[in-house]
Amino acid sequence: MIGRIVTLTLLVIIVTLAPAAAQNSTLDKVRQGMDYIYNQDFRKSQLVITEIEKTLQNSAIPDLMKALQAFWKYYPIHLEDDKLEIYQKHLLSSYSRSKEVLESDPGNPEAIFLAMASQGLLAESYSESGHSFKAVGAAKRAYNYIKEGSHKLDQSKEFYLTTGLYNYYREYYPEAYPIYKPFMYFFMKGDKRKGIQQLEVAAKEASISHVIAQYYLSYIYMRYEYLPSKALRQGRKLHDSYPNNDLFLAIFLESLIINKRYQEAAPLAIELQSNPSPYLKIYGDLFMGVIEEKNHKNFTYAERLYRNVLELNEEYNMKRSHLEAFAYLGLGRIYEHKQDPKARKYFKEALDQAYTKSMKNEAKSHLN
């Protein structure tokens, strides 16, 4: 349980690198390689990684880049046993190399960041694949590096990402899930407002982790703080910068939907509806359902799409309660329009599944 809590506060599923000690030419190569990874151009990213390996022998950077490349290429990677093994192997190698540096130079900010990223990713990976004991160990190690990193903001803007994430989620998570409050006693206090400010700094000023800062800010503004216009700003940046990244496309689509920009959202929803991965197709069906319901008043088709979302979620055991809540709210509105008493059942389901204030409030407003 502790491992799960810490990995949720770290939220470094796709955290990136901080090669503060690297030469500018190498740093540029790392940026280029990460851009290729984010934009799903894995042939080019592999060429860059191979080149960096020759330049930075015995460095943790190429191993972490290989892990991140595997994460994006096989998303969701925890469902691919053979790929998951390779992913974890790269992370372990990255951590081992980082530790070697820290043994001779304990305060090295680059090594601290790389060790923190490797262990945070391992913790999340172990948790997702059902290895709770391993997840706890990795999460504890990552947490120790986060504490070190929080005192090195002046040495690298990259630390604004992880420190900001920690500050925000350390306070958000026990507020949203009071059952976990006792566990938070073991962790240093956070500050949500400060966390958002630090993430904004990372999004604007960090050399490489600005992409992930934008990614998490879009979620925070979209689902937790519910600031639609700010969510749209971050979502648009991600999609414009990496148009081939379907996960960023899904984020942008959701931000358009909550801003009621249905005409702009429609072609993106259609694109995701044809995605071969059910983990991404579900976004297309869900938000096309919202468009059909709210913009075209095509309630029959919208209902079919909402039901398809729930079926996909159950069939593939996605456990995406936020998307389920979206679908149940849609079904509730449709049945309320038909003056069918089943509407209350769907609004109650939405209330049970929702974890954002905006969705809970909407469900409650229909139930009162």
In short:
This protein has 368 residues and is mostly helical.
Entry keywords:
368 residues; Serine Threonine Protein Phosphatase 5, Tetratricopeptide repeat; 0% strand
Largest sheet: none
CA radius of gyration is 21 Å
Average residue pLDDT: 88
State the low-pLDDT regions, or none. Answer: 1-22
Principal-axes geometry comes out as globular
**DSSP helix count?**
18
- Helical amount among residues, as a percent range? over 70%
Give the number of domains: 2
Calculate the terminal CA-CA distance, rounded to whole Å: 35 Å
Please, what is the oligomeric state? single chain
What does this structure look like?
- This protein is an all-alpha fold.
- It has two domains: 2-190; 262-367, Alpha Horseshoe (Serine Threonine Protein Phosphatase 5, Tetratricopeptide repeat).
- Helices cover 74% and strands 0% of the residues.
- The relative contact order is 0.08.
Please write out the topology.
Elements: H1 2-10, H2 24-38, H3 42-55, H4 61-73, H5 81-104, H6 109-128, H7 132-149, H8 159-176, H9 192-205, H10 210-224, H11 228-241, H12 246-258, H13 262-273, H14 278-294, H15 299-315, H16 321-337, H17 342-353, H18 357-367
